[in-house]
Amino acid sequence: MSLQNKVAIITGGASGIGFAIARRFVSDGAKVVIADIDDGRGEEAEKELKDIGEAVYVTCDVAEKLDVRNLVASALDAFGDVDILVNNAGIVAGADLLELDEADFDRVLAVNLKGAFLCLQAVARHLVDRVKAGGEPGTIINISSINAVLAIADQVPYSISKGGVNQLTRVSALALAPYGIRVNAIGPGSISTDMLATVLEDEQARDKVLSRTPLGRVGEPREIAAVAAFLASDGASYVTGQTIYADGGRLPLNYFAKEAD
Prior knowledge:
single chain, Rossmann fold
């Protein structure tokens, strides 16, 4: 699944799943633009990736249209083109439905859904112009979640935002199909990242997660990166409008994978 000389923008790329995707893409020959708001981690990620290939870090709040425009401009300045977008940036705000603050709801939707739209639109405009000029179409990958289909009662805006990401994926795939531009999504299950760290450190909470996971383990960021590498490659040339769930078998499960303690 070579991505040789492809240019990829990865939002939320300084850590977790985003960084794993960035590392995989660079290893597969791509030139990567890491976008994040954590400058410390972003600069560390750039330094680490430069040991194996080409990468730059750009500060970007995906909820801000001007930041997104500057991100695409920075990618073009650095590498001359953009072929791939991975919309990975995401946040959570846990609260009971009746107590959820409006500002927290707005903040999560702004990053997870509006941010994905702004980045997708900006990169799609570039790709459409390139196709019209006789160039090759690119591809867009949105990072969704199993919680786009399932739900967690105290993660209201997160679940809603990821449901929106799935529909953004379908709508965009249809709109961009005439140009040959593919849009897909990945829906991770429980993955070993900072976002899940508190759950994994609690034995009872971890057991609860594993009781709903037929493969009996938590996933690794590199496993999501492998799916992203496939979707970005020519091997997925006839795949668009799809969400691929890498969840250890959770979505098909009706009861429990094992007895809960």
